[in-house]
């Protein structure tokens, strides 16, 4: 079913590309072929503050912290990371370790918020898609076993092969990148790209 959702999305994606000529010259970065991040636990945003976070700014917060997903979460020594690397295609990797045993047997799938800019559009110039929220990458799922999740694929494998033209200059503006439990709420991802300090 997920593949049918992705194929339907790809058809919609092609039709949402802006078709009007560009009014400004496109100047992409000379080099931008790597995106990598740690993964952190997805948690619910604060809606009714009942405390203040430490620091001079006095940022308000909600206590307790509420995980987005009760089944898939990190164990005491859990961690995760993801990486996109571009060459001829966009290679994609996810690695999760030390997940709570309650996640074993579940399926985690990657989604992303992004804009896609390509050259050689039907207009004759470059064009950018409308904002795409929670794009489901169909082949970027894993079956969690023994607290582990591994995903290794490429963009053309994850989406319909004809969605993007390989060799065409394409920029992916990434917003949030998440892992969502299949059958869970896409707006409440189990894991999200993020950082932990220190």
The radius of gyration is 19 Å
Query: Strand tally, please?
Result: 11
Low-confidence regions: 1-23
Total individual domains: 1
Q: Helix count, per DSSP?
A: 2
Give helix and strand order, one letter per element, not per position. HEEEEEEEEEHEE
Please supply descriptive tags for the structure shown above:
single chain; 198 residues; mainly beta; nine-stranded antiparallel β-sheet; two-stranded antiparallel ribbon; 2 helices; 11 strands; 10% helix; 42% strand; globular; disordered N terminus
What would you say about this model in short?
It is built from two helices and eleven strands; from the N terminus they run αβββββββββαββ. The chain is mainly beta and 198 residues long. Residues 1-23 have low confidence and may be disordered.
What does this structure look like?
The protein has 198 residues and is mainly β. The chain has one domain. 10% of the residues lie in helices and 42% in strands. It is globular. The model is unreliable at 1-23 (pLDDT under 50).
